[in-house]
Amino acid sequence: MTKKVEPVAVAKDKTLHRYLSKPARVREDRRFVTGNGRFVADLTPSGTMHIGLVTSPYPHARIVAINVEQALKLPGVVAVLTGAELAKATEPLRQYIDVPEVQWRPLAVESTRYAGEWVAAVVADSRALAEDGAELVVVDYEPLPFVMDPERAAQDDAPLVHPSHGTNVMVKREFVWGDVAANRARAHATTKVRTRWNRNSTVPLETFGVVADWDQHRSVLDIWASIQMPQFPEQIAGALRIPTNQVRVHFDVDVGGSYGVKRGIKHGVLAGFLARQLGVPIKLIEDRSENMHGGDFHGPDRIFEVELAYTADGEFTNIRIDVLDDEGAYPGRSPLQLAKPIGAIVGPYRIPSAEYNAIAVTTNKTGQVAVRGFGQSPTNYAIEAAVDAVARELGMDRMELRRKNFIQPDEFPYKIPSGTEYDSGDYPGVLDKAIEIANLPELLRECETIRAEGRLAGIGVATCLEPGGGNAIFENIMDPSTDKSTFPESCRIRVDGGGAVTAIVSISSAGQAHETMVATLVGEELGIDPDRVAVVRADSLSGFPSQSPVGSRMAIVLGRALHGAASELKSKMCAIGARALDLTPDEVAYCDGSVASVKDPSVSIGWDDLVGIAHRKQHLMPPGMQPGLEVMHVAHTPKSGTLTAPDGTVQLYPCFSFEVHVVLADIDPSTGKVDLKRYFIAHDCGTVINPDVVRGMVYGGTAHGIGVALYEQFAFNDDGQPLTQSFMDYLLPSAHEVPVIVDAEHCTPSPYTTHGQKGVGEAGYMGAPAAIAGAVNDALTACGAEPIHSLPIKPSDIWRALNARTPNQEGSS
Amino acid sequence: MGSNHEVHIEVNGELRTCTTEARTSLADFLRDQLGLTGTHLGCEHGVCGACTVLLNGTPIRSCIMLAAQADGQSVTTIEGLSGPDGELNGVQEAFCKTHALQCGFCTPGMVLAVQALVDNVPEPTQQDIDDAIGGNICRCTGYVQIREAIELVLGDVAKVRTSDDATVGAR
């Protein structure tokens, strides 16, 4: 199947790193294994009141009346807030596309637009009493026509989710890049595959929570929230009509998983409003059902048609991707998830032209929000399904077809038709590594053995990109009137009077080990042991510009800020040291905490003396220098700062990680149950900062992708009612479903980052759904059944596919 | 709201006497009345396992057990595993060594589930291991490094057994 090739791109400078890529403990772990994490639910300031929510039982209904009398009579209930009351005193929540008639608010106003939408909030002494009170609120509804199917929603005569907007189509963008006509003419054939990525989400184990406390004498609204959200403080302030410097979001809260979804603007606005209104701390902790249906935390819900044009020998010449995305009732930030895949629209393949037609519609479902990869994984799945279909058409080996079309290592930086430049990669090398760790000949034998035993078996392969280093440009792509092009990260490095180093960031984290990352990078930059670097989190008022850890960007963008701050700090130390050594600053260099003469390194001044001068000895400091050793640096995202060109070309994210999945599925033909027998990944995210963190991300994203491929779906019935109300019906993979995953790391450094690092936060998830679907379809097609192009692939889908075979087809197995 | 009950529960080796509402779950009791917030609530309907505590040494879901039902029994929470000065026990140490966690939300329940395996199953098979953690959902790790932690701690337990028959586990 392949020839053995030595990896070509092992980082030559890897050995030069003192702390990066070396096995090291993750400093966050200790507090969690002892139960000392500090999650929002753990915080209950004195006098806290709790919110219980009244939710809509209808997918679309006019709110005729709300009777709160009985609820207010319940001892312990202090207030009931309706949507109409809240709307009078607040602004609607932000939309990221130009749809002024689409008004998204924490509590529904006039009508509800999905089952589970919040209608009223009850405030009481305890959460239990607030829930009791919520049951006593009586809402009179008048059901309205509703629409659940996105294709139906896109039709002119469909029931309207937001009638005054006049259509359910929220955004429609069409792009053509490259000489499509010529490339189509060059093709021998085309293959079209319609794929369905059904509605799922990341469903973190911690639901969303927020505590808000208004200090009227200091004019500050303190917020502790389980967020992963850019511009959270600004949006809370905007909705509450208070100045941005009156909202203080505390980032030293542990977030119990997010993977993109923990946005919680509406939760924050509701709690913030009530805290100001009632003058007491307000706590809102979703229960699981609220999280799954009222939180507006659903993910992409897409129908794709991918058409690949190719020559007789399997060279891809053009790709067309049509996508229809069901945003649910309130689009918010989710239409932007249709823009991100533009930056990887041809996957890892050398395809000279591309067409992309993206439509977002509203339906009467829960609102959609950012999910791990921001639309990339569904797109990867759709592309890979088409690639597999071409392989079947041509009778070509799936790996060889991919290899034939890979962008080659010597072609980087490589500009794809949509205008984005891929930074670096070694796609054939990573594929070879996957083949090697999978022991492919052995895997093929195992597959044949299972088939010979009368079961179904198939091997899946996916070769997928993870764009990293998120920037803001998708706002401009989806709404050209938006010209935002800045998406910075920042940090402060402080060497205090005692010589200790502290790095200060202003982000919250949801398991990405940022404290370890920051300490490791600061240690590397300054040549000091990372264990000596304290990492603390400033709040949003005392901190610095940050966009939060989205888009696999912290290693890249925060890494750049850390490098900037460390460089400035070292320059300052060099200036101090040069003066002390009676040399000029360009005659000295910083090395491992000392400043020494370049000519004669034995002439040097050490850390303690440099610190002493900077903090206590003005007479020895260079004239004009600020005392202390304190540096703050704000960094742009690499390769950002441009807008979409008039021809629709655009530079999206700067860095491109790559992963190859090889998976063996064993399927019981009598039940349709899929068992993933073997799982191998070769993965390349450039220079690894902490090996255990990186492989953890790869495994975890893969497990998440297993859920998407086989188990997870937010399903609705024809009445618009959610069928997945609990973890009994929304199935998260357990240790029984996730096999041993074998990961091998490859390293192709990025030229655009401080140490060659790329993004990893979405790893595994980028390729797992595609690979698992490929394995199931390999099993199905091998026994004469049609492939399944809808996720999750349920046992019933497999059973149906097998039973749809004609007797003749069955004979071919 | 129902009646109030006086309960006597041994929590992490200390007898606690409290009055609690009949409807209060053991998890809410531990978190809200005793301030033991290491016990986490993920689903509140007995599926995810984040609220796992040990009841007389056996892992149970504290979200679907009432505090009143634990009257007269012994409960171990995650706070009860570390030593008096915060020293990690064997399972906790293994979780740190292999980075068997990310966000840390499922971790207390997962650590206790593994602790029960170590304490109660002399020579666990792979199936025993899967069963021990199969009721605890982790959304971050894909379980690979959790399995490594279990192997590590079981290896250590085996070493302890060969060197000193009297000690099992590193509680």
Provide structural commentary:
- The complex is a heterodimer of chains A (813) and B (171).
- By secondary structure, chain A is of the alpha+beta class.
- Chain A has three domains: 49-144, Alpha-Beta Complex (Aldehyde Oxidoreductase, domain 3), CATH 3.90.1170.50; 298-473 and 643-811, Aldehyde Oxidoreductase, domain 4; 488-635, Aldehyde oxidase/xanthine dehydrogenase, molybdopterin binding domain (Aldehyde Oxidoreductase, domain 4, 2-Layer Sandwich), CATH 3.30.365.
- Chain A has 21 helices and 29 strands.
- The longest helix of chain A is centred in the C-terminal third of the chain and has 27 residues, at 554-580.
- Mean pLDDT of chain B is 92; it is low at 164-171.
- Chain B has helices at 26-33, 90-98, 107-120, 126-133, 144-163; strands spanning 4-11, 14-21, 52-55, 58-61, 74-76.
- Chain B has two domains: 4-80, Roll (Ubiquitin-like (UB roll)); 90-163, Orthogonal Bundle (DNA polymerase, domain 1).
- In chain B, helix 3 runs antiparallel to helix 4.
- Chain B has a five-stranded mixed β-sheet with strand order 2-1-5-3-4, sandwiched between helices.
- Helix content of chain B is 35%, strand content 16%.
- At the A-B interface, helix 1 and helix 18 of A face helix 1, helix 2, helix 3, helix 4 and helix 5 of B.
